[in-house]
Design goal:
This protein has a single domain, classed as Hotdog Thioesterase (Thiol Ester Dehydrase, Chain A), CATH 3.10.129.10. A hairpin with a 2-residue loop joins strand 1 and strand 2. With 129 residues, it is an alpha+beta fold. It has three helices and six strands, in the order ααββαββββ.
Length: 129
């Protein structure tokens, strides 16, 4: 689904890239750029949440494959562990449970330099045929 991610205007403007997607897992990166930051030089929580949500979606899509489906994120919970520095970030997502069209996904976001975890999240994703 790399092409679909790259074609999404909002996601591509954040510098979010899909690196891995298979068997209920995904791995994505978001390169640092000023558009992802705040006035005080930190990573913006909205940009980080977009990375986390997209990683959860891609992990879910790795189970169903591409198709003529409709999808949404009915629930998203994020824990931030303090200010996030202006650095390249990565998200690792894992589907932990599936019930028909519903997927529960755990996601961790860390920086690519130190591997320090800056946020964790729980994404509930729905894919309907």
């Amino acid at each position: 689904m790399r092409e679909q991610v790259d074609r999404n205007a909002y996601i591509s403007k954040r510098g979010i890239k899909l690196l891995y997607q298979d068997r209920g897992q995904s791995f994505m990166t978001m390169r640092w750029q000023p558009a992802n930051g705040t006035a005080d030089g930190q990573a913006h929580e909205g940009a980080l949440t977009s990375l986390l949500d997209t990683a959860g979606a891609m992990a879910s899509w790795s189970v169903t494959g591409v198709g003529p489906f409709k999808a949404s994120t009915p629930s998203l919970q994020v824990q931030f562990f303090g200010p996030v520095p202006a650095m390249d970030l990565e998200a690792c997502a894992q589907v932990i449970y599936q019930d028909q069209e519903m997927f529960w996904v755990d996601v961790e976001v860390s920086d690519t330099q130190t591997q320090h975890v800056h946020a964790k999240g729980a994404v509930t994703f729905r894919i309907v045929v």
